[in-house]
Specification:
The protein is α+β, with helices and mostly antiparallel strands. Strands 1-2-3 form a 3-stranded antiparallel sheet, with no helix packed on it. The chain starts with a strand and ends in a 7-residue tail after the last helix. The relative contact order is 0.11.
Length: 90
């Protein structure tokens, strides 16, 4: 198990899993930030801005869309946390 913390972001490897934590951010704040980031990222894929994207090598386009997919998955999970917060064990 190893942990690295810098600038309020913690990364911990535990039992073959990677755990990323944000010390200064609520789940709702993170959801808002990730949604804005995904929207900005995808705005480069269509319309006039999309011309540059379509000129990229296929491998770069694939990596770009992989990032968009990862952000969408994270947004989905954060949405569930924000709308159905886990109950604290007391």
């Amino acid at each position: 198990m190893s942990e690295i913390t810098s600038f309020g972001i913690g990364v911990e490897e535990k039992n073959s899993s990677l755990i990323v934590s944000y010390e200064y951010e609520t789940a709702a704040d993170m959801l808002t930030r990730r949604t804005s980031q995904l929207t900005a990222l995808l705005s480069a894929t269509y319309g006039e801005a999309g011309d540059g994207f379509r000129r990229l090598d296929n491998s770069l386009q694939e990596d770009f869309m992989w990032l968009a997919h990862d952000l969408a998955q994270e947004i989905s999970l954060l949405s569930r946390v924000v709308t159905h917060p886990p109950r604290s064990k007391t």
